[in-house]
Write a structure and sequence with these properties.
By secondary structure, this protein is of the alpha/beta class. The chain is built from 12 helices and 15 strands. The protein has 2 domains: 187 residues, Rossmann fold; 143 residues, Phosphofructokinase domain (Rossmann fold), CATH 3.40.50.460. The longest helix has 22 residues.
């Protein structure tokens, strides 16, 4: 009897998800004779086996994934509001509340006959995977997040593409900033980790980069802008992570729904509002938002995602459940998921990247 393996994508979407699915399905079916069960919208398809997303749960064959390598998004759908341990339901009165339906997920996995599940996701998805491992449902993790904040891997796929998109946007904004002598503030994604802002800002020669790991003061940023003006540079570019916060303050939360993480937005506007009280400057704010999540993955992310998908299928073939595939140096290795989620990978305020930025005259707000 063929071994049945589930595969899902969870959390926010990002370029490269389809590349993982393609590699895992092709290797699983063609090399190991697996039957690969695509689970719709994260774990929603196991919360309810009759769940009907755009595609629904389905058994995947190589022909289903042959043309998806270059596509962004995910053919399985995804969700960041389907944590079975705090699943959002409505009661008879229409009130929304969270409930634990994890036992139902384990039971439905048994009904389908799944030996285990390959979960492609970020920090939240890996934490959910570990809780299911503890409940007896085997899982293998594939690290996905544009934030690049998962421990135990040098890089997650999706990050390189997101940085490239942000860099190109900042380059374009520099042209108009210089033409109009403006201060351009660009808000990029990065809830708790400022890797996108730091890398995209460095690659595009930003004048200030504000990240969640370094609570900022506005005075050094204003001083930088005035110094540039005195030197004949009438414009400035400021890159702001969505999770950036002022010293002694909190991140800019615009919404917090049941079953979901707080939605962040407004960090760059808050910086602009604060700076306007310190200096007289024509300022504009651009929020890149979900444009960083879409589009075709970069060559680096296509290759990394493909390597991760292959490695995940090989772990399943060997029965090495409970592990997350990982990039270390030039090699793909694996670590226990419990170890991978133990500590997030955050920007080191005194690390080489930050010290280099300071040496180049970039204000980090500290």
């Amino acid at each position: 009897m063929a071994r049945k393996i589930g595969i899902l994508t969870g959390g926010g979407d990002c370029p490269g998800l389809n590349a993982v699915i393609r590699a895992a399905v092709k290797v699983g079916v063609e090399q190991h004779g697996f039957e690969m069960f695509g689970i719709e919208d994260a774990l929603s398809g196991l919360v309810d086996l009759d769940y009907r997303g755009p595609n629904g749960n389905r058994w995947l064959q190589p022909r289903d994934v042959n043309q998806i390598l270059t596509r962004g998004g995910t053919i399985l759908g995804t969700s960041n509001r389907s944590d079975p341990f705090r699943f959002v339901v409505k009661d008879a009165a229409g009130a929304v509340h969270e409930t634990d339906v994890s036992d139902r997920v384990v039971e439905n996995a048994k009904k389908v006959g799944l030996e285990g599940v390959i979960s492609i996701g970020g920090d939240g998805s890996m934490r959910i995977a570990q809780r299911f491992i503890d409940k007896g449902l085997p899982m293998i993790g594939v690290p996905k997040t544009i934030d690049n904040d998962l421990g135990s891997t040098d890089q997650t796929f999706g990050f390189d593409t997101a940085v490239g998109i942000a860099m190109e946007a900042i380059d374009r904004l520099r042209d108009t900033a210089e033409s109009h002598d403006r201060v351009m503030l660009v808000e990029v994604m990065g809830r708790d980790a400022g890797w996108i802002a730091l890398h995209a800002g460095t690659a595009s020669g930003a004048d200030a980069i504000l990240v969640p790991e370094i609570p900022y003061r506005l005075e050094p940023v204003a001083k930088m802008i005035e110094k540039r003006r005195a030197e004949g540079q009438k414009y400035s570019i400021i890159v702001v992570s969505e999770g950036a916060k002022p010293a002694g303050g909190e991140a800019s939360v615009v919404e917090h729904k049941a079953g979901a993480m707080p939605r962040l937005q407004g960090a760059a506007q808050r910086v602009a509002d604060g700076l306007s009280k310190l200096i007289d400057a024509d300022m504009r704010v651009t929020v890149l938002g979900h444009v960083q999540r879409g589009g075709s993955p970069s060559s680096f992310d296509r290759i990394l995602a493909t390597r991760f998908g292959h490695a995940a299928a090989e772990l399943a073939a060997r029965g090495e459940w409970g592990k997350m595939v990982s990039l270390r140096g030039e090699n793909i290795v694996s670590f226990p998921i419990a170890e991978a989620i133990r500590k997030p990978k955050l920007v080191d305020p005194r690390g080489q990247m930050c010290e280099m930025a300071r040496a180049l005259g970039v204000s980090l707000g500290d």
